[in-house]
Amino acid sequence: MVAGEPEAPARPVWAERAERGSALALRFGLTIIRRLGRPAARLLLAPIAAYFLLTDTVSRRASRAYFGRLYATPEGRAALGHAPGWRDVYRHLFEFSIAILDRVCVWAGFDDDFVFDHQGAGHFAHLPDGCGDNRNALGKCGALIVGAHVGSFDMMRSICLEAEVPMSVVMYGDNAQTINRFLVALNPGLKLRMIQVRSDASSSTLEIRAAIERGEFVAIMGDRIPLTGRGTRTLSFLGAPARFSEGPFQLAALIGCPVIVACALRSGDRSYRVESEPLYAGGRVPRAQRDAVVGEMLEGFVRHLERTCVRAPYQWFNWFDLWAEASGDATGHPGRT
Question: Model pTM?
């Protein structure tokens, strides 16, 4: 490296970690669902959560760090009602197991008895005029849906089916190939397209832009920093600095599409509450104003995620310590890069 040359940001911790579980275990779970039904499969989740509580050190530590941050805030302390301990980590893992089970049910077509309560679905059906030329042949407006690893993002497709608009989901495939291939194989005809993000993000960015300009919805997670480690901004999250990606919001400001922040929270057995709210009305932003507008959108997203974690503390399934990455413990590059 040349003297004085800035060091390249390290890849984020989440991108380096291999997925847990196997295709055999997923196929076994699907067999139970098909032959005995979802209630029988759900009985297996308690020992599965206990197994990962004992063996998955990284997830266990990330969960403890998250609950510690949450409990340090007055709102989070009221939501939990007690100082967090191993029981909270177990419940966290158990909720995640339910989310995976429901995800398999949705992709396999066993979701007829699922109930969806749509709060704010009108934001999808009647997007503002600010989308300009980003409309499909039916006059529907393309938009960017920014979510997080909260609840079940797969349940978001119910809104798109209701609004009769195609949807693409941006996914990082390198560390989740087993489950992604398994889900696609379950229902290859499902009207849901995946845009895979690799180390070279330029091609996926072009895919995202093209889909939005065709008048489609593109859903992307906002609670993971980019693979390159660049294009991030540090904001206060649950009372401490954490790094978030500017990428989705920079793209929206560049092409002028509306941005909606959304999540699907489990509200009961087989029932989900799908919530959405507009974050940006649309319209291309001049370069001189872009940084400020991107900052406003990112701030709105982080505050939305913060409120969601307080309302549903056991349903944020990020499993990585955002605060450690911001402090440099995980990536060595604090602050904005």
Answer: 0.83
